[in-house]
User: Fold these one by one.
Assistant:
Number 1:
Amino acid sequence: MSKSIALSLVLAASLGLAACSGGAENAANAAANAAENASNAADNAMNAALNAADNAGNAAENAANVVENHM
């Protein structure tokens, strides 16, 4: 959902720039590049969240192992 919102905002901003610059082809390329960048940023954020969750799970498992080994 937030990915589509980000892409919509990027597209709107790119169209605004296109109106000012008058270069339709350059504006289309800029919009495509901006959309790809936003998509990549969303993917990177998702991967970072998944990695953080994995790290938290590993830390909890390690803590449980320490407790188990000292009993």
Number 2:
Amino acid sequence: MEEINETESQGQTEMHIGNDPVMLSAVDVVSKLMNQNKISLKARGSSIPNAVAVANIVTEKMLVNKTKVEKINLDTVNEAGIGSMTSTVEIIIINKN
């Protein structure tokens, strides 16, 4: 299940996208965007395509002309002690209102 962290100081919600069904995550994002001006979708590794799909569904299918992708941050983190690297993505969606 995805983990949802509220960030009150910035007026932004962070949602960690995992391997949940994409439409379920998209509906959660839409419901959060009804009360927030900004939402941050975060994913790592094999969950990155799900986060991209959720962002596309929300901005191009569900809330067309009401939301847009403000910023996309890409990064790579080192796993402690293992020596392998994992890609991460943060997609920030905002209301146009």
Number 3:
Amino acid sequence: MPTTRSTQKRSRVLSAGQKNRMQRSTFAFPKERKEPLNDARHVRNAIARFDQVGGVSDAERDAAWRRIRAAARKYGVEVSARGWRQLMKGGRTGKSRSRSG
């Protein structure tokens, strides 16, 4: 039986309950429980949204980037950025840093 588009979309979005049941180590930012890394699609999403995560230190970003890179290798996701700072260029956080610096 073919799957409808709405069914496919629902199966991709994690509910709050699903996120709550996931181990902290499954997230790029485990303390905040942000950016799950449980499959290739979520890894790509974590990379795309990396600059949108606020309220974290550079050390937390370093650790998150290591977790993202490990998950990318596990799920076969190619990462062209050499480091998380490349992702910040042009993003919300990157713009605010350039103005204050």
Number 4:
Amino acid sequence: MWRAVPLAAIFLVCATALAAAPERRVYKVDSVIATLKGRILTIQAKGATQTGGWRKPKLRLMRSPPAEGRTVIVEFLAVPPPPGMTVIEVLVPVEATIRMPARPHIASVRAIADANDVTAQVLH
């Protein structure tokens, strides 16, 4: 019984470390589709990570510079595998979708990854 407590504590520390891992940009964006229905903008992005083990891919809205007022900019993020984890060393496809209220006069969406970015026109 005295061994169960240390094992439970180790499990809790490992689970907390995994949950608190910082997100990073995925390796690349392959495609972006942006659609506007009513006042809701839906952005779908597909891309890849350089290894397996990445979790929770998502798109995060970035602040657009004033010069890009008609463009919505998002980062393509995911949680990388923890250090020391054995992962496959190959490009692994990932995808993410975000829905948000649309600003007036949005014309395009730009998704940024680590190695590239892709811009797409908003489909109405």
